[in-house]
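Researcher: Please predict.
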Amino acid sequence: MANLTERCRELATAAMKDGIADAAIEVLKRHGYNGLTMDRVAEAAGVAKGSIYNYFSGKQDLVTHIFDRIIEPAMKRGDEIASSAQPALAKLQATLQMWFDLFAEHRGLFDFLFRQPQVREICFEARRKRDRHTIERISGILRQGIDEGVVRPLDVETAAELLIGATNFLIERQLDTGDRRDGQECVQHILDTFLRGFLTDSARTQRSNSQIDELTDAG
């Protein structure tokens, strides 16, 4: 009975936080981040102002929750992909596709949130807190690829950082420019560049290993 009671309490808390967050989004749309006050959120949510502080410490905490509510399901899905029985390259493709699908699904909200510098920085900070976990997950997939013989031995952590950086840049670039790119095409471009590199097949055969090493070791 105690477990059931606790579970009901957790569900009620989650529902209340989501309701307040939805109200905060409406206030943000009308008044921007500087106009996001607990009074306005309370009025939009139909609750007492004081009750909001039972769930959020302030408006920055509130915006972080809005962003977390979008990101957390994707983080869990990423863990499921990484722990699945798929080959490494299939996991890599599925992971990248998941992020572009998430962006497409919530594009309207991302467009709105990232137009406001203060909100954008809060969202970036919330994302940065998850970077370590994401790097470890991608590194694990790359290690699996090495074990399978489809990825050459390399510094998997640096490679993971580069993959994540490329993905984040393509998404953030669309927010900056208003461009809309097909997510599947973006994934294919990233994978093609990272897996095949910049050299043509003929260039690979014409250059000796030492010449390629000189290029990659330069600087």
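Model: The first helix runs from residue 2 to 31.
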